[in-house]
Amino acid sequence: MRCSALAEELAEPMVGTVDQRVRWLLIEDRSAWGSEAVSDVIGAERAATAKRLDLRVQLIRRREGPPQTDAPRTAFLVDTDARIVASREIRSLDGLDLEAAAAAPVDDFGERVGGPMFVVCTNGKRDACCALRGRALTVALAAQEPDALWETTHLGGHRFAANLVCLPAGIVYGRVRPDDGLRLVAAYRAGRLDPELLRGRSAWPAPAQVAEAELRRSLALDGVDDLRLEGVESQEESATVIFVVDGRTHRLTLRAERSDPARPTSCRADKLEAPIHWRLA
After folding, report:
1. How far is the C-alpha of 175 from the C-alpha of 179, rounded, in Å?
2. What is the DSSP-derived secondary structure letter of residue 223?
3. Which of 154, 109, 148, 115 is nearest to 134 (CA)?
């Protein structure tokens, strides 16, 4: 059984499963991606440096092609908290300063980019579910968003394929069917989101991702900016998340629980895991 089908059968919750990364570095790359595509392209040492800096590095493309077509290539730096994007052309990956990308002002990276970017994981060598479901989603979105849509490498959460990321806000959706994708993209352009398919926001820690979805359901909120995160007080197994909505403060308490039974978390997994999920207390 594919990991995405198993996760659906077990009704595994998706919300709160996005790794917290405020900065994203997207590098255009048309080569055939392997299971460790980012490390293969930028080098294992630089990939480890990016992880240490909390900089999310993704390869993106609109099509496969010979590597020589990647000179020059475009790189995008996204700050999902400030919601800004800058881009520039690069002729060599050696020219990318990861320390600066992680901490320097985004405007130092290149020219501001207007409009959203939509990225879908199609990294089939990493997990077959991303190829099967991700490709179907990109086909459905290609005609509607030819200039904003990109395929990307591993995003995490293969078992929630197809995964769609709306940038620059860093809103991540899972189990996105082709028809869902068309609706979610249109909603994002209109400043709205869908809490039912929401995995979370990459700028926020997992408890805040879960708390956002719960509060949105409770108050029937669908505007991207309907609530403001004021703070997260987190301990090992509990957390308190504070939001402000229309001038009123909402304080939500959550607890971390392990999901049963243990299961493979990807199609390539050789061991079983019991994922931790945050739940409203």
Report:
1. 11
2. B
3. 154
Handedness of CA 244, 231, 229, 17 (dihedral sign): negative
- Return the amino acid letter for 231: G
Report how far residue 103's alpha carbon sits from residue 71's, in angstroms, rounded to the nearest whole number.
Answer: 26
Whether 252 contacts 240, CB under 8 Å? yes
- pLDDT, block means (10 residues), the chain with 281 residues: 88 95 96 94 96 97 72 92 96 91 97 96 92 93 94 93 97 96 97 95 97 96 97 93 98 94 84 92 91
The CATH architecture one would assign to domain 1-204 is: 3-Layer(aba) Sandwich (3.40)
**Cα–Cα distance between 9 and 218 in angstroms, integer?**
26
3-class secondary-structure state, position 251: strand
> Structure pTM?
0.94
Domain ranges across the chain: 1-204
